[in-house]
C-alpha cells in the first residue's frame, strides 16, 4: 500500500516538473515563465518529497526530507519576488494578449529597486 | 540500456554542453550563467560518483558562492549603467 | 525503494536537458536566469531521488539537496540584484 502511494506521488511529481519545463519553454514572457517556474516546480518537489518520505527508514530521515520542501518554497518565493520586482524596475513590460509587444514607459520611470 | 547508464550518459552530455557554452560564448554574462549551471550538474555528477561530501562542497562553492562572487565581479568590471555589450566584448 | 526513483530521476534530467536549451538560446539574460533557477529546483528533486535510488546512506545526499536549494536561491538573488542592470528586450533575442 505504501509502495503504491509512494509511486503514485513520485509520478505526480514528475508530471508537475514536466509542466514547469513546458511552461518555461512555451510561455511568452518573463513574468509568465516565472509564474510557471516558481509554483509548479515546487509542487512537483513537494510530491516527490512526500512520496520518498513514505518509504524512509526512520522518522528522522523522513523529517529531514520534509525539511527540504519548506526551504525550497521560501527560496522560490523570495526569488520570484526579487526577479519580478527587478524586471518591473528595469521596465520590462508584461505580455498582453491584445497587443503582445507594447513596452510601457511608465514602468521604466519608476524608482530603481 | 539500464536507467542508471542512461542517466550517466545524459548527465555527461549536459556537462559537456554547459562547459562548451561557458568557454565559447562571447558574452561574459552568459558565460557566468553557463558556469553556474555547470556547477549544478557537476554536483549531480559527484553524487553519481558516490562522493556525497565532494558533491556538498561543489553545490556550496561551485553553484553557490562562486556564482555570487562572479556576478559581483562582473558588475564591478562592467561599471556604470553604460551598455554592457561593448564592455563584455572588451573583457573577452 | 520501489525501483521507480532512478527512472524518474532520469526523466527530471531530461527536463533539465530541455531547459538547458533555454539557457543556451533563450532571449535575454533574464530568461537564462530563469532556466538556471529551474536547474536549481529540478536539481534538488534529482538529488532527493538519487538519495533513495542506491544502497548508500541517505542523509549525506539530503545535506547536498538542502545546500543546493539554499545556495541556488542566493545565486539567483545576487544576479537579480547586483548584476542584472540593462533592460534586456523581452523578446526577439540577442543571439
Could you characterize the architecture of this molecule?
Chain A contains four helices and no strands. Mean pLDDT of chain A is 80; it is low at 102-113. Helices cover 75% and strands 0% of the residues of chain A. The longest helix of chain A has 31 residues, at 59-89. Chain A has one domain. Chain B contains four helices and no strands. Chain B has helices at 3-24, 28-48, 52-78, 84-90. The longest helix of chain B has 27 residues, at 52-78. With 95 residues, chain C is an all-alpha fold. At the A-C interface, helix 1, helix 2 and helix 3 of A face helix 1, helix 2 and helix 3 of C.
Give the topology, please.
The complex is a heterotrimer of chains A (113), B (92) and C (95).
Chain A: H1 2-26, H2 30-53, H3 59-89, H4 105-109
Helix pairs in contact in A: 1-2, 2-3
Chain B: H1 3-24, H2 28-48, H3 52-78, H4 84-90
Chain C: H1 5-25, H2 28-53, H3 59-83
Helix pairs in contact in C: 1-2, 2-3
Provide the low-confidence segments of chain B as ranges. 81-92
Separation of the first and last Cα atoms of chain A:
52 Å
Mean pLDDT of chain A: 80
Radius of gyration of chain A: 18 Å
Short description:
The complex is a heterotrimer of chains A (113), B (92) and C (95). With 92 residues, chain B is mostly helical. Chain B has helices spanning 3-24, 28-48, 52-78, 84-90.
Provide key terms for this protein:
heterotrimer, A: 113 residues, mainly alpha, B: 92 residues, 84% helix, 0% strand
